[in-house]
Write a sequence for this structure.
């Protein structure tokens, strides 16, 4: 992407930096949840995680409280689970700063993340997968970077950072590398791991880019980060300093749909100029 450069910085981070946000007007403010603004919202999408979802919530809350966070909320979005995940969460004695929402039918991870964002109140929004493939302690690292690093509008945990502690099969690594290569060729995006389950954004970034998004399922992360970079926001990649074990296998159907989505994102980016044009009708 023209104007973007990758540079290594201290503590193993990689920074994708560019010009200031490419907009002449105020960000489109929409969808903030009711109530007073908070410092941090953690949005966790879950689907058929009846045993893991509640554990994920308590681990996230425990980690944040342990590290001195007080002004935060956790927003859980159940994506139409059929195994009792939602009912189990509702029955649980969850902390007061945890809210649970539900899609009546399965809409996809992207849809759930957007729904959680629209219901959130935080000035910083963290997206975090509920399967706990990524250790909740990673949240503290991301929030520290986005608060203390003046370069960061968004922070992405990269499973493939040279300092990351990622355990994955050779096939998983090859497929991930191939997908990243396609992203770089088609979209010009230099983020090495768009599909990571741990990201954090300043609210004004999502206020600006979310209305431009179309993909709600397989490649939503790729479209989101393409839009973030295209709008000129600054993305910092950090390593997964706690071990990640990628156990879930790739499904051929999902790979096919991701490729179709990737081509559609390319059209919207290269032809429609949806993510860069300040005059694009939202």
């Amino acid at each position: 992407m023209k104007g973007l450069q990758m540079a290594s910085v201290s503590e193993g981070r990689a920074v994708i930096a560019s010009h200031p946000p490419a907009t002449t007007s105020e960000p489109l403010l929409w969808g903030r949840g009711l109530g007073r603004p908070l410092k941090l919202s953690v949005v966790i999408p879950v689907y058929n995680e009846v045993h893991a979802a509640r554990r994920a919530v308590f681990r996230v809350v425990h980690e944040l409280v342990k590290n001195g966070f007080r002004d935060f909320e956790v927003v859980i979005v159940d994506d139409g689970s059929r195994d009792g995940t939602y009912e189990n969460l509702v029955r649980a004695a969850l902390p007061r700063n945890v809210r649970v929402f539900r899609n009546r039918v399965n809409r996809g991870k992207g849809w759930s993340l957007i729904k959680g964002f629209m219901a959130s109140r935080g000035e910083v929004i963290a997206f975090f997968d509920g399967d706990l493939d990524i250790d909740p302690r990673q949240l503290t690292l991301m929030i520290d970077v986005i608060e203390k690093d003046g370069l960061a509008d968004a922070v992405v945990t990269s499973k493939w950072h040279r300092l990351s502690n990622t355990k994955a099969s050779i096939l998983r690594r090859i497929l991930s590398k191939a997908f990243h290569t396609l992203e770089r060729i088609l979209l010009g995006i230099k983020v090495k791991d768009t599909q990571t389950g741990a990201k954090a954004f300043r609210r004004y970034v999502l206020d600006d880019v979310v209305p431009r998004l179309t993909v709600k399922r397989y490649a939503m992360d790729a479209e989101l980060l393409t839009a973030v970079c295209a709008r000129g926001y600054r993305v910092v990649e950090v390593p997964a300093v706690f071990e990640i074990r990628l156990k879930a296998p790739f499904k051929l159907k999902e790979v096919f749909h991701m490729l179709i989505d990737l081509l559609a994102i390319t059209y919207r980016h290269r032809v429609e100029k949806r993510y860069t044009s300040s005059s694009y009708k939202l």
